[in-house]
Amino acid sequence: MDFNDYYSIDAILAENQKVQCKFKQKIPNMGHLGGGTERDITQNAKLQMPVWLSYIILYSGWADLVFPAPFAQRVHNALKAEPRSVRLSGLVGAGASWYMLGRMLMDIIQGSRAKELSEMMTEAFTARLMEVVDQAYHFANVGSMTGVSAAGTPQAFREGLDNTERELFLLARNSEKASKEWYDGGNHRAKPI
Amino acid sequence: MSLPVSLRTSVTPPELELIACQQLIDIIPLITMERTAFISGAYGPLRPPNRAKVPIWMAVNLKTKKKCHIVPPEWLTYDYLKERLEEETSKDGFSKLPFRYIEISKVLLDVASDDLENTDKLRSLLKDLREARQAKCRAGLSQIDYSELSLPNLCAMEINEIRPFFVESMSVLTQLTPPQNIPNS
């Protein structure tokens, strides 16, 4: 997944994720941006904006960014305590990427907070990566259990993967499958041609 | 970009096998053949009982028709692999094995098991080696960062197996690193 790739469909989809903006001034006739029925955007209104739209709004000084909940201190603490028990998919919603949203947030806020964010995400990513790959490798043995998943089980972890990690899981899974097929491959060469 | 995703990320194990089969190997032919030109070069002449050097694909073809014996490479023996396995389990790095040892050993074990000694032991040694090396790859994953990862002596098949998700992980890590921290970007 390339975050910056102009042609990357993943990047385009990621830019569609919403961040909350708090408007500093009244903007007439733009109420539809917030998706509501209001005609104007009032002062101090908090609206969910897609990231691609938020750039222009924030840089023009019309609104302030409300720091998104998926990257709040609470999440930071939870990740510090045990990176593998945090359900990233639950933080950003299904089909969205926590890392991509974080990456775009880094671009918006810049400076030392961006650095902090980068460190948090890098640590979380490396700590969770092992588990992702391990589970991909042993997925065939574990099988896809159905039913309720208790916290701390491999299944709960899998459900908590965000989109970026999901893609990695699939890559590792397919690679393992292809290798295994080849290693176990029938003795097809033994037949005289 | 119409290739299926599974083929886009890296080459497949059968393709690696095909590549490995270009390597030359000694055979003892049971038939006579003049020097013959193939697309990849001219091989032969085959004059039993003299040894000849031919590509593995040709050796396999002749072998399946019972027209040659394959002389196993010097590393495909119980003693050599046993030594490597000990090295593998006692030391940190990967032991030095031929770059395409996995492909070649599998092809030879499949086709020419009667030309090898102790095939069962060889198989289990190769399996142990693979598992020991896989564990090290896994450990390497924990040291991954955005810029580089050095795993010397890794073999073609192993590289190929870990390539898709290692590359992807590193590209994600690159994205998570602030641009000013990446030199020459």
UniProtKB/TrEMBL annotation, chain A:
A Pfam family of this chain: Sld5
Domain GINS subunit spans what residues?
74-183
- Report the leader peptide range: none
- Superkingdom of origin: Eukaryota
Q: Which InterPro entries match?
A: GINS_A, GINS_bundle-like_dom_sf, GINS_Psf3, GINS_Psf3_sf, PSF3_N
Cell location: Nucleus
What is one cellular component GO term in this UniProt entry?
A: GINS complex
What Gene3D superfamilies does its record include?
Answer: 1.20.58.2050
> Major place of localization?
nucleus
GO annotation (BP), single: mitotic DNA replication initiation
Family annotation (CDD domains):
GINS_A_psf3, GINS_B_Psf3
Q: Write the record's keywords in alphabetical order, separated by commas.
A: DNA replication, Nucleus
Task: Say if the entry is tagged with keyword NAD.
Answer: no
Using the record's annotation, list all stretches that form the DNA replication complex GINS protein PSF3 N-terminal domain: 7-56
Quaternary structure and partners: Component of the GINS complex.
Function, as annotated: The GINS complex plays an essential role in the initiation of DNA replication.
Q: Indicate the family of this protein.
A: Belongs to the GINS3/PSF3 family.
Official protein name in the record: DNA replication complex GINS protein PSF3
Biological source species:
Amanita muscaria (strain Koide BX008)
TrEMBL record, chain B:
Domain GINS subunit residues, every copy? 75-175
Key words of the record: Chromosome partition, DNA replication, Nucleus
Tell me the Gene Ontology biological-process terms attached to this UniProt entry.
chromosome segregation; DNA replication; double-strand break repair via break-induced replication
Highest taxon of the lineage: Eukaryota
Q: Which residues form the signal peptide?
A: none
Q: Name the InterPro entries on file.
A: GINS_A, GINS_bundle-like_dom_sf, GINS_Psf2, PSF2_N
Major site of localization recorded for this protein:
nucleus
Q: Where in the cell is it found?
A: Nucleus
* Location of the DNA replication complex GINS protein PSF2 N-terminal domain: 12-71
- Spell out the GO cellular component terms annotated for this protein, sorted alphabetically and separated by semicolons: GINS complex
Q: How does it assemble?
A: Component of the GINS complex.
Family membership, please give it. Answer: Belongs to the GINS2/PSF2 family.
Question: Which PANTHER family does the UniProt entry name for this protein?
Answer: DNA REPLICATION COMPLEX GINS PROTEIN PSF2
The name on file for this protein is: DNA replication complex GINS protein PSF2
Q: In which organism is this protein found?
A: Amanita muscaria (strain Koide BX008)
